[in-house]
Structures
1.
Amino acid sequence: MTISERDFRAVDLNLLVTFLVLMRERSVSRAAERLFIGQPAVSGALGRLRALFDDELLVRTAAGMEPTSRALTLEAELLPALQNVQAALFQPERFDAANAERTFTLAMPDWVEVWLMPRVFAELRRLAPRIRVAVKATDPFQGAAMLERHEMELGVATLPERPGWMRSMPLARMGFSCISHEAGLKLAGPLTLQDYIAHPHVLVTYRGAFQSGIDRLLEERGLRRQVQYTTQQFSALPSLLREVAALASVPSALARHWSYCQNLRAHPLPLPSPEIELSMFWHAVKDRDPALEWLRGVVESAAHSAPA
């Protein structure tokens, strides 16, 4: 259905509100009190209403003001219409998770998916069984561009930069641990700094570099480790460490997870660990999307309940 702009030129929304209050109160003075305006203003509005609808609308009688049949018809039609307008303007839209059918597109590095999404997905299955989730791979340097291209709705990663249009919320801070395979690299005791620099390393890096913040910490001590293999995927590490006697430094939450399910051994990093901050981020145009607001709450709750 289309609307004709010309039909509304003589109509003031406040005039229709005044009409409905007059119909409810059947009194100019009481309507003025409810509207917080003077009686002359209400009488003037009634005159304009009579001219607009070419009908007396409310007629003075000994018992008070009585509506005409035209006024009763208008009230029955206008009241639900203005209630809908009021709801659209002033009541926030609600997201009915239990009955919603929607696909959310998220993006995050693969290790974040391993750490976070099992809890998120389990909660979505419990609260919103018809919701679908598509998770894409991203890294700290691609997130903003993916949002701008509308390739995702919500991201979780470390954020080296935050454009002005980006909204974000910190989720967790964590350090690093070192991992090795039980059968591949046998250590006599706890991992020492000498062990750390004596064995080759596998490094996850998104830009192909053979150094990270850990190497800068080692350089401050006059030390250097042997990074012999780099990859962009944390998921490649278990298979690599199973075949090669090497070490890898990964976020502590991932090391804890792999020590449980991948037969990998997690070691405390034998030097002060740099920390990373994981953030949830989205585009400002989606700031008030009720469905995405709800999803952000689920992700935040899952991140706070997950060991970091």
2.
Amino acid sequence: MTVAAGLRAQLAQIELSMAELESQLTSLRSEKHRLLKVLDRIAYPVTTLPAEITSDIFLHIIPTSHGDEDDNGGDADDDGRLQGYHSLLRLASVCRTWRAVVLSRCALWNSITVFCDEVRDPVKLLEAWLPRAGKLPIDLKIRLPRDYSTIMSVLSHYASQWRHVHFFTVPCRVLDRSASDDLTIDHFPTALPLLETLKLFPYHLSDGGNPETSLRDAPGLHSLFLTTPSAAIRMGVPLHQLTSLQFFTSTDAELLEVLALTPNLEILRPGILLREEIAVPPSLTLPHLHTFESDDDLCILRYLTLPALTHLKFEDLTRTGCLEALQTCISQSSSTIRTLELHSGEFIVAHACFTALPTLRHVTLVFPRCSPSEMEDFCISMKSSSFLPSLESLTYEGCLDDSTIHLVNAISARRLGVEGTTKLTAASISFLEDGDLVEALDNLRDLGQRGLKLDVSGGPGGI
């Protein structure tokens, strides 16, 4: 065979192979086209859900504007500042079906959290967000900039829909009632028919401000948080409506002046109390108040009669006269305290408080200053029928390694049963250290198997 004939044979073979490949490609393209048409006819289960169910699912993943907050107006979770808005935009970008659901469901848009100083154009953001709430009540949590007149102008258009409202500025680090960055009531709208909760911090009435404010026309207002009690008086707040009241700071006289006008109050958080002597001590009864929480002085309690009081939450009891004021209040009120929360206090004072409150059912200790010997004394007391005889649950946050065995012994004693006392039904412990907790955790697991409801965190592992 000549060289030319050999080359022609090779080319013929190549052309034959190419024809076979092209035939396979044609077949594959045809099969691909067929599969795509079948796939287009398949509806994903998530897109076939009724719009009402889809929007209800979305509601569970969108943060609200009235969650946990600290007293300075900040978030417990700062990542939630614009999560709601951004989450809605992400959901709306998934597909046309989801976009239609997100844009049409007003309930997805009526809870708003905006830190205006961290947003490029908060006015445009609010103008895009607020109309989508439709006619639903609106919950607002807004950190206002220094010049917030334009922001308030936008928000005021929806004042008839305000429900839970929290306006604040940059957190106040120094107590200064005349601070230039405080909120002023002058910018408020004229009618707030749906308002239930109002938090203004920090706040003051500007010079020349009109004390006749719109808060007189807030028939549903029941929860209020202001900087001082005097602000509530000057603003003309309908105090007789309130069931929950909180201040950042107050004097005894200011607080008592406001409390005398709150016959329906159920929850009181007086804030930092500036102690002062009152010439004629009043005797003030709040018949419905069941919860008293304080981060500071308790001596205001000596002026109060609280027959419905059941829940106490304190930061500390070490200030002079605090424990005595508490005992005086309970004695003159004939109240039955069921729940006590103590935060960062001396354990020896907590122990004295337990002795003074034999009706306690639920006790929470958060990072108590406690030595091993004090914890051992507590454990011994827990084995006595006269110590917290009605205790049903114990929460202890911040347990150190050297206190663990004593705490577990106390829990074990009350779960297994001390004659004359109620059996412990629940215990929650958080450990600060990863020490030698094997034996303690084994004992807790055994108690859990015996029916004790347990919640254990920290340390080398959970239950």
